[in-house]
Write a structure and sequence with these properties.
The structure is a homodimer. Chain A folds into two domains: about 20-345, Cupredoxins -  blue copper proteins (Immunoglobulin-like); about 360-555, Sandwich (Immunoglobulin-like). Helix content of chain A is about 5%, strand content about 35%. Chain A has helices at about 1-15, 170-175, 335-345, 390-395, 530, and strands at about 20-35, 40-45, 55-60, 60-70, 80, 105-115, 120-125, 135-140, 155-165, 190, 220-225, 230-235, 240-245, 250-255, 260-265, 270, 275-280, 290-300, 305-315, 360-370, 375-380, 385, 430, 435-440, 445-450, 460-465, 470-480, 495-500, 500-505, 505-515, 520-525, 535-540. In chain A, the strands form seven sheets. A six-stranded mixed β-sheet of chain A has the order 10-9-12-17-14-15, with no helix packed on it. Chains A, B: Keywords: Copper, Disulfide bond, Glycoprotein, Metal-binding, Oxidoreductase, Repeat, Secreted, Signal.
Amino acid sequence: MNFLACFVLICFFTVPLVEGRVRHYKWEAKYEFKSPDCYKKLAITVNGKTPGPSIVAQQGDTIIVELKNSLLTENVAIHWHGIRQIGTPWFDGTEGVTQCPILPGDTFVYKFIVDRPGTYLYHAHYGMQREAGLYGSIRVSLPEGESEPFSYDYDRSIILTDWYHASTYEQVAGLSSIPFVWVGEPQSILIQGKGRFNCSTPGIQASLCNATNPECTPYALTVIPRKTYRLRIGSLTALSALNFEIEGHNMTVVEADGHYVEPFVVKNLFIYSGETYSVLITADQDPSRNYWASAKIVSRNSNTTNGLAIFNYYPNHPRRNPPTVPAPGPHWNDNEPRLTQSIAIKSRQGYIHPPPQTSDRVIVMLNTQNNINGVRRWSINNASYNLPHTPYLIALKYNFTDAFDPSPPPDGYDFANYDIYSVAKNVNATTSTGIYRNKFNTTVDIILQNANTMNPNNSETHPWHLHGHDFWVLGYGKGKFDKTKDPKNFNLVNPIMKNTVPVHPYGWTALRFRADNPGVWAFHCHIESHFFMGMGVIFEEGIEKVGPLPKSIMGCGDTKGFHRP
Amino acid sequence: MNFLACFVLICFFTVPLVEGRVRHYKWEAKYEFKSPDCYKKLAITVNGKTPGPSIVAQQGDTIIVELKNSLLTENVAIHWHGIRQIGTPWFDGTEGVTQCPILPGDTFVYKFIVDRPGTYLYHAHYGMQREAGLYGSIRVSLPEGESEPFSYDYDRSIILTDWYHASTYEQVAGLSSIPFVWVGEPQSILIQGKGRFNCSTPGIQASLCNATNPECTPYALTVIPRKTYRLRIGSLTALSALNFEIEGHNMTVVEADGHYVEPFVVKNLFIYSGETYSVLITADQDPSRNYWASAKIVSRNSNTTNGLAIFNYYPNHPRRNPPTVPAPGPHWNDNEPRLTQSIAIKSRQGYIHPPPQTSDRVIVMLNTQNNINGVRRWSINNASYNLPHTPYLIALKYNFTDAFDPSPPPDGYDFANYDIYSVAKNVNATTSTGIYRNKFNTTVDIILQNANTMNPNNSETHPWHLHGHDFWVLGYGKGKFDKTKDPKNFNLVNPIMKNTVPVHPYGWTALRFRADNPGVWAFHCHIESHFFMGMGVIFEEGIEKVGPLPKSIMGCGDTKGFHRP
């Protein structure tokens, strides 16, 4: 007894002295039948759930995830979205870039430090497994004694996704076939893993759709009247840009991708796949009823029903439907308010990380839809990204020179002649495994230039996500980026830092980042099918500063074999 | 011109001098939508087809298959069923035993010699990909100038399979869930990749089932009246034991698993998954019409419609339905004729490989259905087989001692007390990665002992397949094998050699093989779900004689890494 008491005391007094706690998770990824929108289909679960378990940690903590792959014949890899993996680039979880895939039956141990507070995500980064259900949230709180520059009573997290009834295998068979077969719009929008598909839809097998299945009971966010909630909202849609609204409740945007935002109030929030926001909501409406929270597809002319959750005023029953019709939300093709919101997001006074005032390199990335040997692809400056057999991190660190194309992809496009408003005269592109290598500690500007797709009068929204870094969002514009004039209007005073940012239809978005994180990092459209179809690039910096790579990330390409210790 | 002529001449005269030709195949495995039984679902194809391309070769030829895995997130491996891989045990294609899985995007090169004439098969040997459609036939002919001990005019091959509409992922989710969810009987039986599901079945989505799809036109075996056909029949069913019959036509059995059979005539042929037979059929019936060829499920009380093909007498139209009702076939639960056929198969006079008259070791293998931690499994002597992370061949060759359980599984069971006719008193089993190690060049007897499953009054048929060897089939019996009495009745005179053999319900089957092929070899029930559920064992012999292993088979378990050349 004395010994135990002593042990407890030691622990108690020891904790505050260590840098951060170790948070150890044991996860198993598996296919299981789930009915998140009442329709039963196989989903990839973590420990039986989709979304998977939340990681809740404090700044400085070490996260250890022992991931067992029980997907039978399918590999897996998990990316920790928004975590920069400083010093641990091999645990970024990007299959083909930072690691070999995790084989069925294997257990892979991810170990990394969450070095900043904020709202982050995790999700599969292999094939299209994210949209099969392998995703969840990461919430990192401030160290003890430090406080946020805003106050709230409770902290809640939700993730928005879109949901298909076709398996990812069925989708991919279409994406890579000639002619191209597009899966179409999602069957439903899920709020925190729950949505509602109409089981009476003609052609739906009755045995597969059960409207009374508790798995598709709308998610209820229960609030106490007059209290203020910090709601952390992440989007991990496969395809859709969304608008989120809680009827009758304004939201004050205070955080974006882990950075404090100069607060601004919105009636509804546009959110793109890969983004996270914290909004403050005060339960200041009539407390005798519930309210609809809704997520609506924008930027595409979708027939998908809005995702609905219940903003539940305690003590009303969480399943009591609000007496109203959910807010209609903005019109799908009204780009103006989306651009307005993008521009409105600035870094919060007192928390500004000033950007370098100049950059060492400017890369203009023209986003186009193309064909390669008759297969539909997406390209950057006419090069469509292909994964190599040996992950870049390993190939570069150990100088496997044949592992990928040594010639870098182009830094720009034919600015003078390319008409971004029309279908390209030549829609053909080439594949590439080449990468952008940046000198360590230099400053790089990226201009994402949108264009017309292969359909006349059509330009899509692409949310681009950068691994291993945050970037400053210097500006957004309409039409073709002008290298001379537009940089003069860059926001070099209080730009927000983010890891994911949209490029709007027929528009451009300008980013700046410091190439200061030794490793190899993907930068890609976060629409899962777009990345699958080649819409991404790879950056390298400071590879010589990367420490010895763990053997666990190997096993593919040039890393089949062994050496005796 | 002169040069070309000279080159052609050189080739012409050179061919007969070499040992065997090299037959080079380039294959791509891919998911594609197919409607083999009129119902559209994803299938794994090879070069766009299921069954995949046939390998047609001559004894002594070298087969090279460059297999590209385009399954996106899923690995693959192909087993060359019946090819002993003498000197090339690393190309047996058994994932977890002889190689690591082939990763998506990778191309793996199989290279082996077909050293004997006969009828063989190939199929995926990973997860349950075989029943997803990855299979085909291998036909090896005699060397020039040699002839078979029977005559025929034409040589034809067909493969019989059963076909599920649920994906293998859906099936496996059920197999490994608690409670166990069984996929049930197959939706159809395919003859050479073609079957017919009734699209009017209630609950079937009209858009998925099209009875007029040419992909489900019944297979037509066109014959010229009065000619004799050698029909090579292989079964690669996932589950079903089949009976094959061509109405009005007797069949003379002349080959089984690559060995000549003392000819015997049957009206219909029982065939189990993994077996091949050659039968001679003479088109000696009324030539003015066609005849039904039918494949019927036996040994299970199945509601699956018989598979049908058309035995088409030229010049009748190959799609002209026969005027008759297909033969009803034997009753599903009539075991006697099945046992009779098994016993009837003897080695052909003049082609007998005499078996060793004694054996060095006897292993009795009790086949039982069990639970492990509540999950349904199959076991041998109460040990249910689990794949290790490092394939045995690599682990044993390079002495990775931790890769699997070093204690061997038991050589027998509690013969005195185990009641094979009842559900076991304790249905729980244990998992094992242990293997049977046999001294090189010794003779091993295997007694496969069937028993009751976990359902009262139920014992199933299990076709067991041995990799890397043929075995002598010494005998079959009913009930419990008697170690003292039954060996006295073993056929040591003219037993057939086979690589796959059934153990009948509540019966036993006795085999003998020479442990003379250096390597590591699986021996397992060829029912795909049964092997997945643990119904298999591993044999090792002469590992010290195995040459250096190719790096291409590595990449998993202890073989993640690299060494500089």
